[in-house]
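#structure-requests
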Amino acid sequence: MYTIDFHTHPVPQSFREALADLGIDPIEDDGFPLPAWSIKDHRAFMEEAGIDYSIFSLPSPHIHNGNDAKSAAAARKINEELGAAVRDDPRHFGFIACLPLPYTEGSLDEITYSMDTLSALGVKFPTNANGVYPGDPKLDPVMEELNRRKALVIIHPNRARQAPKDVITGKVAALFEYPADTTRALLNMIAHNIMVRFPDIRFVIPHTGSFLPFMYQRMKGVSKILAMNGLMDETNVDDNIRSLYFDIAGDPEPNQLDMLLSITNDDHIVYGSDFPHSPAKIIEMKKRDLEHSKKWESILPKIYGENGARLLTDIGAAVPLS
């Protein structure tokens, strides 16, 4: 099956240098070191795992520490390095740009440069950018521009700026804070009608929707009570969720893919590996398990390639899809 990977991370030298310059320590921020990575290793992984096309998106931590100018300069350097890597092998790689969010003016400049000059497919949105979440009105100009461009937006978790550290969930962000902050961002997007107000953006949500399948019914009920009491605007949860795409990076089996299908349909699920943050051998094992499961054999072609190909066609991406 032709396979498109919507959740895979480059770790270019420009990213490592930017974090050092910004004073952002991945171990302190995420509780996990940045893995070794190279284009050569990524190609080898794709061949071994049976992945045909990878869309690079920068991992956490997010490149903003309060200094707008430094963050904008870092985003430009990283995007130029990723753009060059993709130009060298457009048959196997595409990328989405990183932005100096929540710096709105710099983000708009980077959208223009990355998409028009570097041929980025879209942009990455961290679940929070130095504490500012998607749905915040100050980010509306960025959403408006992405909507105008019918852009691909891949959401990726980032540790909340305030989280307890003296518990196991606070030590390694991938255990709990990643899915928690993804869900926090999604609920904020729903509360601010982002998907309804900006219907031409194609959002991809990571990790089988994180906690959204569990929170879906509660959000429907509580949002009505909040709106009745003037604590938020009225919102239609179903209308906001309907257009979302979800990747299956992480642990879709044995329960999470079932849970995800309770809030979306199999036309809106795409493949994600999470390489190199997840080891190649673990990814390959999970992929084999899915492929040998009678339960999913009828929808795997959609998840692996067909849905992703349609999504890329929808945004006008000129990429090989066979």
